[in-house]
């Protein structure tokens, strides 16, 4: 059964696109786009590609051969994904070379190296720089300093940062592919072709129900298969967008768009998943949906369970990678980092004329989106949980939090072409924030979404008093 393709993804020269245009046309509207001109000067494009444009497998074997990586067997399905095995990069390269020289095609398994945390493993080797459009990345900024979920039953050193990130390298021979899916946490992703060619087929979120069975439980695995009409009655009606991605092109994949990807040539790509103030609502909606499913699944043991809610949250974290309180911690820390930057602008004597200061405006947009999600969390009756709390005044002494603030500040300075401030004085800034009347006059403890909302409102209302922008700032927040 052929799929109905009725549209192409727009291709835009990334060098002629401003950040604000990218936000307005693609990130806010949640629309895909293919961008050119963003990969010049990447070390990956030089080192990883041979003169005739193929993957330089020998380079990988020589320099990164010992790395252990996840490799998918594209011909073997395991539940909703491909079967994966762990092997070294050298073993993967050997099999690729052997496959390429095998004449008998039957029974040959096509291997695809996926989700290699290359940046984490080789921080000194700067293979690429993240294009400016994708830098407002709260997920990876956070995971560089904190874990998303800490299992209380598993012992770990308190200062160990083994949290992983969502920055990956993919490598696969012609014919390797990725089954139909929407991205983890319903994040955005971007994917850059260092070499090779990919075919992407996209389905808009308004049509995603069409790839599910009638109970909305399982989705189509491979859209080129003979898809059973009895099992997936809507599938034939789905209308797909196609994109052929050439080398040196970067694709932006918006939240919640189902997509399937086929490597039309031997390909190496780099991709990141991320979220920020523009797609936070997607992350919360997914978390709530997964929570309801986790709860429904164990509903019949509710009456015999001592801590039913705790079990639901544990199952949610196991299935989705975080639970409600992980997400609240994430929101609170990111929110605090934004508030520190607001203080910083004020202390540096920047008048916070929100509409004309791009960073001020960005910080307000961020706080507004965090506040909106906290309101949604509050509306489902999320209350205190197992002594969970974060204290804004205490967190100011946390070195990881300081790093989060610094990276966030640097990122916005880079995006909006501003200077970053003197990091030497950061410690004293934290002290000034802690001792300010605004912070001292209100509880800085956050245990529930409602606490977070009150804290944001208190700080912003009082800062408005200081900078004289009451109406503008408050109306943007609400
Ligand atoms: O390149 C691939 O095979 C899959 C990438 C993908 O699905 C993504 O970046 O979301």
From TrEMBL:
Residue ranges annotated for the JmjC domain, each copy included: 119-291
- A Pfam family name for this chain? Cupin_8
Q: Which GO terms describe its molecular function?
A: 2-oxoglutarate-dependent dioxygenase activity; catalytic activity, acting on a protein; metal ion binding; sequence-specific DNA binding
Provide GO CC annotations from the record.
Answer: cytoplasm; nucleus
Needed co-factor(s): Fe(2+)
The family line of this record is: Belongs to the JARID1 histone demethylase family.
In its UniProt entry, what is this protein called? JmjC domain containing protein
Could you tell me which species this protein originates from? Trema orientale (Charcoal tree)
Upper classification of the source organism reads: Eukaryota, Viridiplantae, Streptophyta, Embryophyta, Tracheophyta
């Amino acid at each position: 059964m052929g799929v109905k393709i009725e549209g192409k993804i727009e291709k835009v020269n990334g060098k002629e696109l401003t950040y604000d245009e990218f936000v307005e046309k693609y990130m806010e509207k949640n629309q895909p786009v293919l961008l050119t001109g963003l990969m010049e000067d990447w070390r990956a494009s030089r080192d990883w590609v041979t003169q005739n444009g193929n993957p330089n497998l020998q380079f990988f074997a020589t320099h990164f051969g010992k790395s252990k990586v996840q490799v998918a067997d594209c011909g073997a399905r395991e539940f909703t994904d491909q079967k994966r095995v762990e092997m070294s990069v050298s073993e993967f390269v050997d099999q690729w070379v052997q496959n390429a020289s095998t004449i008998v095609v039957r029974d040959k398994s096509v291997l695809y190296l996926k989700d290699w945390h290359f940046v984490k493993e080789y921080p000194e080797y700067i293979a690429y720089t993240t294009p400016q459009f994708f830098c407002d990345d709260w997920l990876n900024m956070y995971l560089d300093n904190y874990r998303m979920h800490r299992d209380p039953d598993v012992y770990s050193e308190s200062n160990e940062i083994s949290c992983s990130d969502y920055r990956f390298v993919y490598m696969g021979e012609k014919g390797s592919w990725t089954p139909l899916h929407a991205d983890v946490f319903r994040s955005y992703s971007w994917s850059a072709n260092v070499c090779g060619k990919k075919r992407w087929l996209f389905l808009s979120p308004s049509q995603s129900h069409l790839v599910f069975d009638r109970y909305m439980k399982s989705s189509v695995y491979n859209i080129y298969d003979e898809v059973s009409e009895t099992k997936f009655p809507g599938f034939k009606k789905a209308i797909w967008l196609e994109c052929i991605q050439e080398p040196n092109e970067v694709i932006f994949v918006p939240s919640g768009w189902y997509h399937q990807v086929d490597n039309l040539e031997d390909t190496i790509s780099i991709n990141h998943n991320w979220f920020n103030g523009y797609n936070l609502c997607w992350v919360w909606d997914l978390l709530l949906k997964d929570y309801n499913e986790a709860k429904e699944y164990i509903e019949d043991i509710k009456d015999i369970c001592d801590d039913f809610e705790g079990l639901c949250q544990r199952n949610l974290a196991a299935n989705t990678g975080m639970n409600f309180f992980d997400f609240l911690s994430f929101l609170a820390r990111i929110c605090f980092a934004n508030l520190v930057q607001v203080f910083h602008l004020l202390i540096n004597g920047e008048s916070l004329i929100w509409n004309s200061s791009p960073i001020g405006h960005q910080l307000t947009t961020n706080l507004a989106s965090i506040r909106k999600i906290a309101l949604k969390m509050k509306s489902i009756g999320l209350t205190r949980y197992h002594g969970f709390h974060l204290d804004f005044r205490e967190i100011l002494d946390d070195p990881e939090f300081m790093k989060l603030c610094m990276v966030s500040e640097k990122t916005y300075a880079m995006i909006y072409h501003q200077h970053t401030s003197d990091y030497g004085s950061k410690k004293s800034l934290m002290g000034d924030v802690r001792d300010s009347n605004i912070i001292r006059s209100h509880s800085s403890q956050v245990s529930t979404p409602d606490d977070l909302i009150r804290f944001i409102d208190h700080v912003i209302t009082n800062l408005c008093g200081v900078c004289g922008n009451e109406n503008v700032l408050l109306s943007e927040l609400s």
